[in-house]
Specification:
Helix content is 33%, strand content 20%. It is an alpha+beta fold.
């Protein structure tokens, strides 16, 4: 189930991502989808059974998911924010077993993504480059604090490239380009070509935003929580 949708904008195109207001309904439906999953499918997605539910690696942490209650808790036992709650339940509700593919495409390359590319650029890449992405050293340190792996010989183009294992079967790469006296820093978020087999288009935008938000928080050395 995609994130709660908002009405079309004046141009007739819905904004992406939609405002996150109907979280209780979205989380309840997503939790029901997880409850309907077989244990084999959840384990294929990387979840490990525990007494009241499942644990799941998310970036550099182990989270606990209780499908009966629809809750998702971080490694400190706190409820994660609603964005991460719904995203995580959606991931665990994936049907089938998509082939693992490396991150090689941008959001604009996805079917349906081109029409929202400017919105994605502003909300994801723009925010990154206005905050922690202004400096390569700060970005590297923030990324490593979230479990990001610096790519070297196998790296995509860029002055800094990092890979983030967001979920056990879903990773993204970030390619960062240093600016100069005339150009500001820039970046690209690379996704698996079949990322929509795991998350819908709206979820992909929200996931990208949340990753950038956590990078910005880590770069500022201020706890932001799992919002």
């Amino acid at each position: 189930m995609p994130m709660p949708k908002n009405p079309p904008n004046p141009a007739g195109r819905p904004a992406v991502p939609p405002p996150q207001r109907n979280y209780d309904e979205a989380a309840a439906r997503a939790a029901a989808a997880v409850r309907a999953q077989s244990a084999e499918q959840l384990q294929w997605l990387g979840a490990i059974p525990v007494s009241k539910g499942w644990t799941l690696g998310v970036l550099n942490e182990i989270w606990t998911v209780e499908p009966d209650a629809g809750t998702v808790r971080d490694s400190a036992g706190r409820n994660v924010g609603p964005w991460w709650q719904v995203l995580t339940l959606h991931y665990l509700g994936v049907s089938g077993q998509p082939v693992s593919e490396p991150p090689t495409v941008t959001f604009a390359d996805l079917p349906g993504g081109r029409g929202y590319a400017s919105i994605y650029q502003q909300r994801v890449i723009g925010r990154l480059c206005r905050t922690v992405g202004r400096d390569g050293t700060a970005l590297r340190q923030a990324g490593q604090a979230l479990g990001g792996r610096v790519l070297r010989s196998e790296a995509p183009a860029g002055d800094l490239a990092m890979e983030f294992q967001v979920y056990p079967r879903l990773c993204v790469q970030l390619a960062w380009y240093a600016g100069d006296e005339e150009l500001a820093p820039s970046a690209a978020m690379l996704l698996p070509t079949n990322v929509e087999s795991f998350l819908c288009l709206e979820d992909i935008v929200v996931l990208s935003e949340r990753l950038v938000a956590r990078l910005a928080a880590a770069g500022a050395s201020k706890p932001e929580g799992k919002r």
